[in-house]
């Protein structure tokens, strides 16, 4: 359409210069550590290095300086923002060493987050790390992964001998965050009424702290959740945080790509590289009634079960809110009872609802083993936000039951499972 400027996201990623003073930062001595941590996933190593150089090389005082440096040489940025000041005003966390790493979901953001945290603690740039995320589900998965990584003897062997902190303690905000700690918490726990240790931990400020943020797009976008709304406010608030890095696979505010992305590994690249798999996506069909839609989804699911008999295919059905997915699951259970001639108890074992509602809390525990053959669960009903952080590898079909469940941005409409699949409507 005439008058609309179409810009490739990779063209407005802020480039961090690599010609820094090696006497201030020697990243070469971390090569073996990164090889051990990331294996052959070069994009993870690159993302970690970019973040470390940006924050620890001494070349940058804040994201403002990086943005100005890029604006001076990037004609695409100049085309998008008619004046340098317009770019600066668009930055979400100005006047700090802040930035975002855009990694396709399913490409291993947790390894990148851990690598950044360990290296910056080890070289003494920061004394402690606070890792924030949007939900209890993601918090649990991150903590389990970090505990596993922190216990790996092979990783510790490659940390340079002179380093300050080699054995970070992985904690939550039930205890005060001390030097050498990596505290992992969901954003709902950082406020006074939760009884967490956050206020006590930062009574003297947070200038010695690295704040990592998983799924940072929640903090940047409008939310109906009162605590999510405060996320950005917390980062910019009284604690005087200086070092702030976010990760996401959805780096958009409505249809605008973030202005503070330091590194991008796109979904298309991840698919081309074989890092994530393509999953069947079933679009909304206005021409079918509910029973006919159930039948179509059921037939697809059965086909996957036949094609991948060695695995246990799972179908994810996503609605707009807790009430709608609860009702939808009840209707689907009735459908299963008729279709498979089974009783209600058996059908309820196959289809579960996973939301933040207390009545569904018991189902959260089932997510960690739904991939196993022994699990009866084949059908998961949820709301779109809760698809983040699930460690479910066998999702073969995803069904957006209502459009409004996916209107998170106007540049892409869809959802993603933990293998990093996103779709455009």
Automatic annotation (TrEMBL):
It comes from the Bacteria. It holds the Pfam family ResIII. One of its GO terms (molecular function) is DNA binding. Residues 41-250 form the Helicase/UvrB N-terminal domain. Transmembrane segments: none annotated. One of its GO terms (cellular component) is cytosol. PANTHER family: ATP-DEPENDENT HELICASE IRC3-RELATED, TYPE I RESTRICTION ENZYME ECOKI R PROTEIN. This is Helicase/UvrB N-terminal domain-containing protein.
């Amino acid at each position: 359409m005439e008058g609309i400027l179409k810009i490739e996201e990779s063209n407005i990623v802020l480039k961090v210069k690599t010609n820094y003073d090696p006497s201030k930062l020697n990243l070469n001595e971390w090569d073996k550590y990164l090889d051990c941590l990331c294996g052959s996933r070069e994009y993870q190593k690159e993302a970690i290095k970019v973040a470390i150089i940006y924050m620890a090389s001494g070349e940058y005082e804040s994201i403002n300086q990086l943005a100005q440096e890029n604006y001076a040489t990037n004609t695409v940025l100049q085309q998008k923002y008619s004046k340098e000041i317009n770019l600066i005003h668009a930055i979400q966390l100005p006047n700090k060493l802040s930035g975002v790493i855009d990694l396709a979901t399913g490409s291993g953001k947790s390894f990148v987050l851990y690598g950044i945290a360990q290296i910056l603690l080890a070289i003494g740039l920061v004394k402690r790390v606070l890792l924030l995320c949007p939900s209890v589900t993601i918090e649990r998965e991150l903590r389990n992964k970090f505990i596993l990584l922190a216990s790996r003897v092979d990783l510790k062997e490659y940390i340079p001998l002179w380093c300050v902190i080699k054995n970070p303690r992985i904690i939550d905000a039930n205890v005060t965050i001390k030097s050498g700690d990596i505290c992992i918490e969901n954003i709902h726990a950082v406020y006074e009424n939760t009884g967490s240790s956050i206020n006590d931990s930062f009574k003297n400020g947070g200038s010695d702290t690295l704040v990592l943020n998983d799924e940072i797009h929640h903090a940047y976008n409008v939310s109906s959740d009162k605590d999510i709304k405060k996320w950005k406010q917390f980062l910019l608030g009284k604690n005087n945080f200086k070092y702030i890095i976010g990760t996401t696979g959805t780096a958009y505010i409505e249809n605008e790509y973030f202005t503070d992305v330091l590194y991008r590994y796109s979904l298309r690249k991840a698919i081309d590289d074989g890092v994530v798999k393509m999953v069947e996506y079933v679009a909304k069909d206005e021409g079918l009634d509910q029973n006919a839609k159930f039948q179509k989804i059921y037939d697809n699911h059965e086909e996957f079960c036949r094609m991948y008999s060695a695995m246990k295919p799972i179908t994810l059905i996503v609605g707009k809110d807790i009430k709608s997915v609860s009702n939808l699951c009840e209707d689907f259970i009735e459908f299963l009872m008729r279709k498979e001639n089974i009783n209600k108890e058996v059908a309820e074992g196959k289809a579960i609802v996973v939301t933040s509602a207390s009545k569904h809390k018991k189902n959260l525990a089932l997510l960690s083993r739904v991939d196993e053959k022994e699990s009866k669960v084949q059908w998961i009903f949820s709301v779109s936000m809760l698809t983040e952080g699930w460690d479910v590898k066998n999702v073969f079909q995803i069904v957006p039951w209502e459009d409004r469940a996916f209107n998170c941005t106007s540049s892409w409409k869809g959802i993603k499972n933990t293998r990093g699949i996103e779709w455009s409507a």
